[in-house]
Amino acid sequence: MANNSGGFNDAFARLHVSEKSIEGNQITTTTISSPSSTSYRDVTQLFRQACQGLDVGQLVKDPNFTLFEAVGALEIMDPKMDSGLLKPGEDDTPSELYQPVLPEEIIGIMDQLLSSEMSWHDGAALSQTVFTCLYIDNLLSLNPSSLEEAKFNLPPSETHQPGSPTYQLLHVVLRAYCVGLIKCCERVNLQILAEHTYEEEDFVTQTYNVSLLDFITVAEINKLLVSAIEYVDSTAAPWPNNIKMALKARLAFRKLFLTELSRDVKEMVDKRSNWDGCITLLSTIGITRNLGTAVPSVFSIAVQRKLASTVPPRPIVQIPFEEAFTIVSRLCKDAKEILRVLTYSGATNLMTFFLRFTARKPQPSTYVRSLLQTLFFSNHVALGRMQISHILLEDVKELCLPADDLFDPRNELSEMPSDTRFQIHQRMKWFVERAGNSYITLYRTICQNRSRLRRNLCHLIVDWDALQIECEEIDGELQQLIKEEPVLHNDNISYAFSLSSWVYHYKLRQMEWIIFLGFELEVYLPHEFAGMYWYLQYFLRTRLQHLERIRHFVHPGVAVDSPLAATRSKECIASAQDIANAQATVNFTLLEAAALQELCSAMIFLYTALARLGLVKTPPQPYSTDVMRYELRMKPFLTIGCPDVVPFEDFKALVDNPDIETIEMLEMASENTKEGRKNFDLLSKMSATSSHALLCEEGYRLNLREYLRSCIGAGVAIVMLLKAIKTNTVADAEVEIDQGSYHPWFPIPRISSKKRPPLPAVPPTGR
Amino acid sequence: METAVQPDALLHSFITKTLRVTTNDTRMFVGELKCTDRDANLILARTHEYRIPKFKLEDMGRKVDLTSRYLGLVVVMGVDISRIEVEEIGRASDGDDGMEV
């Protein structure tokens, strides 16, 4: 024992140092020489003596190395940083891997693995979840490159004689399940890496240089799972039927789940998806859940000691089975639901689906949001079979319906630069390319997590603002080329400006979303609510005016003597139905914006009144002022050309309305909620087709109901306040902002008396 | 003055060299020295950790590969170090090391 350490050290010097497992992108310029030409000289004494000659605080360092970089260094021997550190008394030799004997234990391990897998889907790292399973570790540690090699490497055991049911349980059933699960992880990782998501924030794709059976095909693994199912089904497996059913359901789910995760867009377009099969099997897994026996000993954090990781160790994450079950069920349902976008039914419908689907609480999983991006646009194809230009131009037509000549397919055929058709085509081509990019980015951005969506929208509006200006110029050129007839609008002779109108409308919507998301994400403090609703109301009012203008210019006329008239192809001419549809879209959008505007106006008055009555207080701002906060809130909008940011003094006067009595203000708010409610009621009565909610009617209606709840809630708050003022009991009133029970964009103050228990929130209007 | 310069120069000669550092728990860390101080605390870049595999009776007398993994930038405290070795490139393979003249 005494000479053990010295012996070890000598042994090290002679040991062959293997480098084989470290390849790939983590190392860029390693120059560790081949072992044969490397020798090490012991400099311990020399080094230590030299160090002692240094002054306290003196550093000897590479001039290119900064201490700033050193902040990211892992501290060896620090238990919080060093994943390789053994706990005191811990032995490095892991105890032999427990080999289960009972099928119940296998069911238990499978369910634990599902929990681990779903924790990974939910944002934890593989090193905290799937990789902590010692069976997964055992299977992957020899870096299998073929299916034959992907097996457990377990010492022979008396209870597990080859061929015996206990042996088959491990080496056929559990092995197939583990192999299937690892491959599922690989497919998920590939999907998520293919699209834009936020690493560590949404999902951790890090695999620590462990290959997730990349070289083994899905077909091979499916076969393996099928043969495991066949074994469980056979008479050789001596277990009761319920156990067999439980094992079979888990294996079959793994097979179907893997198949679904491996589908390409083309198969999905061809309607080959079978998420329903997964959902059915999941219900069997849920029913047979109690048959399993947990085997906690086959999960260990010690696995992290072996993983190539430049980050500190992280604790095991394993969510309860019920939670994992909810996540996987929702994943299957959501993945099935997004396939609806493949049945394209117009651009506005598509946008409504994206907005409603991603706004769901809790938000759809990262995998599903990534897959939705792929379905929308991948390999230069939209929705698996369309050109993005088609969707873009339909979006423009559905709202603005520009003049027919812009879309005449004959334009493209013209090759003479002096020809009007050629010139129109050049400009439309520019629009499709320029706006197409912004349009795709908008859809992709909507698929991001809510905080990122808000942040990214702040950047997007700058682009859309520039796009608007560029399109105005193109619109001007186009109206001359097609000889557009000007129309009298608001005492001015004007032209349609269809393309830039469409861009402006989208820009305004995005500006609204930024502030609405501020409410949803609880960015604003209650004393800012009135001001932020004022801005919403301002943006909405601008949009309403703009929509009125668009309505006026739907399908603009062109001069009868237009040179294009004679050669216009019939297919590009808008039918009466097209014109009616565009007008209906504008009317619907107007109604929706008007409803929101009424509710926002009510909220301004309500929260201003609350501030006046001292029920919503401005917290102490030792390092801030109202002006500074206003500047911060307006920062995304400062560079936007139109609408302008209002100077702070004007803004304050507009929000505070000092000339209006509080009672009068609340009565006005009450009128607004009634108007808003009326508009939302009208919207609820409209069909899914005219609401452009064909792909997501349920989610759309739920959203409307939440708006209505906020209207009603605001109405109740106003009545309570008026009553308190009239009975002189404001001093007894208490206010609590309710973020949860209403529309996330319209949190409602709950007003109660300090003396009486608070009134309950407005009950849900049916879910 | 003279005494202060010497250890300095010696230590500078180790900077950017590959060191093999053995810690008290018998692990080894092989990486490029970036920085050191009076307490012989070391910052190593592009570091690999080597751990002695479990010795089994049947492995006796056979060549055993060390299990290794990549860690990147690490700090090893002087008090935890039992041995420091510097890599010496054999004379036969001086192709890529132009620093040594």
Automatic annotation (TrEMBL), chain A:
Name the major location. Answer: cytoplasm
Residue intervals of the NAA35-like TPR repeats domain: 338-748
The entry's localization annotation reads:
Cytoplasm
Which segments of the protein form a coiled coil according to its record? none
- PANTHER family, per database record: GLUCOSE REPRESSIBLE PROTEIN MAK10, N-ALPHA-ACETYLTRANSFERASE 35, NATC AUXILIARY SUBUNIT
Q: Would you identify the family this protein belongs to, as annotated?
A: Belongs to the MAK10 family.
What is the name listed in the Swiss-Prot or TrEMBL entry for this protein? N-alpha-acetyltransferase 35, NatC auxiliary subunit
Q: Give the species this sequence originates from.
A: Arthrobotrys oligospora (strain ATCC 24927 / CBS 115.81 / DSM 1491) (Nematode-trapping fungus)
Q: Kindly list the organism's lineage.
A: Eukaryota, Fungi, Dikarya, Ascomycota, Pezizomycotina
TrEMBL record, chain B:
**Superkingdom of the organism of origin:** Eukaryota
- Please name the Pfam families in this protein's record: LSM
Q: Per the database record, which ranges form the Sm domain? A: 9-86
Which Gene3D superfamilies does its entry note? 2.30.30.100
Any one Gene Ontology cellular component term annotated for this protein: NatC complex
**How is this protein named in the record?**
Sm domain-containing protein
